[in-house]
Amino acid sequence: MALVAAPEILSPYYRSLALAILADVALAVSWAFFSGPSRYLSLATGAFFGAGAYVTAIAGARLPWPLPVLGGALIGCAMALVVGALALRLRGPYFAVFTFGLAELAKHSLIWYETGVTGTVGRLILAPPGPWTLYYTVLCLAGLAVLTALLLRRSRWGYALAGIGADEERAETLGIDTTRVKIGTFALSAAFMGAVGAAMAPRWTYLDPQVFNPFVSFQTVIMALLGGATTVAGPIIGAVFLGLASEILLLKFRYFYMLGLGLTLIVVVLALPSGLSGLAARLRASPSPLPRPQP
Amino acid sequence: MTMKRREFLTTSAGGAAALTVLRGKAWGQAKPVKVGYTLSGTGPYSVGAGITQGPNYTLWQEQVNAKGGLLVKGEGRRPIEFISIDDRSEHETAVRFYEKLMTDDKVDLILPPWGTAMNFAVAPVANKYGYPMLGPTAVSNKLKELSLPYFYALLAQPDPIMEAFVGLLKDLKAQGKISKIGLAYVNDLFGIELYNSATPHLKQAGLDVVDTKSYPLGAKDLSPILKGFKAAGADVFLGLTYPPDNILATTQAKEVDWNPAVFLTAVGTAFPFYRDRFKGADGVMGIAGWNPKVKIAGAREYFDAHVKKHQKEPDRWASAFAYASLQILERCVGEVGLDRKKIKEMLDSTEFQTVGGPIKFVKGMNVSTPGMVGQWQKGEFEILWPKSRATGTPVVPKPAWA
Q1: Residue in chain B lying closest to A128 (CA)
Q2: Quick check: B81 and B25 in contact, CB under 8 A?
Q3: Which domain holds residue A89?
Q4: B399 and B285 Cβ atoms separated by less than 8 Å
Q5: Fewer Cβ within 10 Å of end Cβ, chain A: N or C?
Q6: pLDDT, tens digit, for every residue of B61-75?
Q7: Are A11 and B104 in contact (CB < 8 Å)?
Q8: How close B194 gets to chain A, by Cα (Å)?
């Protein structure tokens, strides 16, 4: 409720901060509902996000909002179907490397297309929707991503995905159509990533192929792992924690924030292998045998 | 949870505000003029930001505060206080922080971030809140399409730059010093816009382009292109480059033993570190805008002050215009105060005298500064073209690589 009413009471800056964090929540949750249970480490987030952003850049002026967001979802989905059919036979690091290359491939294909066909690189988004429209769009996407993750967990489809993550051969032997389950979930997660890209693009007015940024892919993985990739709450906690921590460090310790962020990450990963949500679960489940620090 | 987060952030903001007050007290009675900006301290934009904008911002602040502060009409001198943040070379972060500066910190003035894409991202925000933004590192034909009344561009744009390039080449051809051009451009907005401007100008000037090649941003090997130009007998290398590929092309031209009569590249050539890296880079030409020898009042003093404060020279293209943008703001505030609407009116109607020469804006574009070509000669980047701005004459053919 507070998040729905937020734009009414927040200043533009805090609204933007909330918007950026919600976008990260949507990315991290949609990444985790595929990669968490299936254990396929995808680094394609940047590619789907960038493709979605480009949909807004190309079609945004002609289509009423939120159609570009829908377009972003479709293009992300379509890319994932093609890539999934090719790459989901790859296991472990090979899949990660392949998906990482996807963002570069998309970037250079786009440069080739833009220079060859349109004769320029870089596009302006001249009539962006208002900031509140963007905020609610991203809020909806984040909400939908969480809902999808929750439903998926409790469905046969979700169990099948977890089964694939535990042992793919066994899952196949048990009669699960592993290819369909993997590609389907991968495409669904990519649809969210494309939609988030499309929804965020109007913020920057100008877009060029550099929007296919590998950093987006890594950041998403870090947020999800930080919070705990196998739960629904984990990626949300990770995205909110990382978003707030980096913002505060950046504002207060301009020259040391990278150091601070790096140290925070190392500590969390070393101390909490199952992420921040794992910590919460552990505290709830059993009183720790170690003496708790006194407040 | 939302409440807690907000409380926490409000507390942080309160702390920052308290600090501001304390600092203001230290200056005496006058309340500081708050000037906000983001520059990239990390990420790909940090190199350019650290050469062209950052040093000029801090130099100007130090100089003005040494005089007792920024003269505000009707209020006397008030010290300048910067509120600056590292935008991490991320557009989203920059947009958000400018919103913070203008709506939360309520700064009096803003300075721009570094680079064309960043200016594109931030200019609409500045426009929305009515903050004049004078961009010294924004170069694109698309700036006009934006039509943001509060945005001002100081540098010569792609078309005037190409006019200068082709003007010089045409002159050299008329003297019989060159005949064939090999043209390479980086496949990014800037390179492509320069290329699109170059084609009609070259054709009109009757210059013979024997080969044209493009390459992606971040290319790691340009030697095949250079070898191709050499084999085609080109005696002009026209490289519409960014700094990394500029460095690469220069290094590799020497490696493939190609020393064309004219070696003309775009961004990066005017940086002093380019000269130092290539042992003087004697004879290399590039986009120019300024050097300490120009006959402009204050130019030499600016150069000396920059070297004294930062122990490094300003670059020979945009640095002086970054400083000029601050001089312009200073004059406006002195004459009309901190009312940003009045500042805008003054920006639209006045010709300013700066260390970069006279500057006059028409529809937000500086129409007084032409595109220029320079050449490294014995440690200085001499301006060769247009002749009205020249500080030296072309050395063609260029000397052998050092």
Answers
A1: B124
A2: no
A3: 2-214
A4: no
A5: C
A6: 999 999 999 999 999
A7: yes
A8: 11
